[in-house]
Amino acid sequence: MRLFVALIPPGEVVDDLERAVAPLRAQDRTLRWTRAEHWHLTLAF
Q1: Can you give the three-state secondary structure of the chain, one letter per residue?
Q2: pTM beyond cutoff 0.90
Q3: CA-CA distance, 1 to 16, in Å (whole number)?
């Protein structure tokens, strides 16, 4: 079993990050990106 501790960013932060990442997503459509609702900051694994 694995356990990790993470922080989930507030919605407005996720929105800002989505806008910042959008141009990168468009550059390489072969990459599989994680949906924004699954984004988190891992503190310990």
Answers
A1: CCCCEEECCCHHHHHHHHHHHHHHHHHCCCCCCCCHHHCCEEEEC
A2: no
A3: 34
Minimal CA–CA distance to 40: which of 1, 12, 14? 14
* Two tokens, residue 6: 């993470």
Q: Report d(CA 45, CA 35) in Å as an integer.
A: 21
| pLDDT, tens only, 1-45 | 989 999 999 999 999 999 999 999 999 889 999 999 999 999 999
**Phi and psi angles of residue 35, each rounded to the nearest 5 degrees, phi first:** -65, 145
- Beta carbons within 8 Å of 21's beta carbon, 6+ residues apart: 33
